[in-house]
Amino acid sequence: MLRLRLRECFVSHLLASPSTCSISPLRRLLSAAASPPICPKPSSFAVEDYLINTCGLTRPQALKASTKISHLKSPAKPNAVLAFLAGLGLSGADVAAVVAKDPQLLCAKVDKTLAPKVARLAGLGFSRPQIARLVSVTPYCFRSRNFVSKPNVDFLRECGLSACDIANLAMYNRGMLTTNLEHLQAMVTCAEGIGVPRGSGMFRQALHAIAFQNPEKIAAKVNYLKNTFKWSHAEAGIAVSKAPILLRMSKDKLQRTSQFLIPEAGLEPARIAHRPILLTYSLEGRLRPRHYVLKFVKENGLLDRDRSYFSAVDMTENVFVEKFVRPHIEAAPHLAEDYAAACRGEVPTRFILA
């Protein structure tokens, strides 16, 4: 317990004052925190049991992970890593997920590998929760020599991204912080090429959408969008600039959504281009069920004024139910049941007849 508390204190100090941190204070703390070592015999340390009982892995996870750290003969190094992760703020469940994802992190040296990298991130402006999240998502990066390029971070900041933006970007595109600067600059140019300028609110999403995709693949996806939604080149450009994530969506989802929105829901392609967020919603769980409800209440004269489909699908689930389902329970007792069925992928008869 004493050792864990001291390690937590150290991590807090490390994150609070990155510019004054060095490795030697950590060594002194670790030395002070350590009680006279009681080293088990090599044969007494069962890696698989340790992973289950101490790290919280399931037995199948432990069986798989143990093959990668079978050389460990003592819990000393993994104990130090676990204490360090706890000091960063990771919960027991977080630690279990990290170890299952990258068991070899347990073999890392806290003072020579993990602590300096945390200090470097803190010095670049990353907060404690952001660093903890990065560890959770990409633990292997924390034991990699090719970790974070300061020129890349500086360049992304020049593009208008905050430390929070950069951290979120790195969680899903970890290569952004390690690739060479010229490659990163080319990605930024590509993001600008799809109509998203630096400093705009969609710039981070644009970088995520085009990251490590070649220009030919991006152009092919734009052409697919044009053909699928009957857009002009300008309309496709508007849609992509407003929702760059379209470039990452599967062709199957885009095709099915197009087949519903245009012929069935009766939306004009140009209007969809100006509201491309529609295409990111679930077809089965949101777009189709809400269309059915809106059509039903309109055709049965239950609306006191016209409501647009766009506004109906933009609402949260609770707001939609409050506005379009609950007010009509007396006039349409089965509406809530039918809407729930539609959200499960069914098409109630009453909706077909409406």
Automatic annotation (TrEMBL):
Keywords: Transcription, Transcription regulation, Transcription termination, Transit peptide
Domain of life: Eukaryota
Gene3D superfamilies: Transcription termination factor 3, mitochondrial
InterPro entries assigned to the protein according to its UniProt record, in alphabetical order: MTERF, MTERF_sf
UniProt-recorded Gene Ontology molecular function terms: nucleic acid binding
Pfam families from the UniProt entry: mTERF
Coiled coil: none
One GO term (biological process): DNA-templated transcription termination
SMART domains given in the database record: Mterf
Similarity-based family: Belongs to the mTERF family.
Protein name as it appears in the record: mTERF domain-containing protein 1, mitochondrial
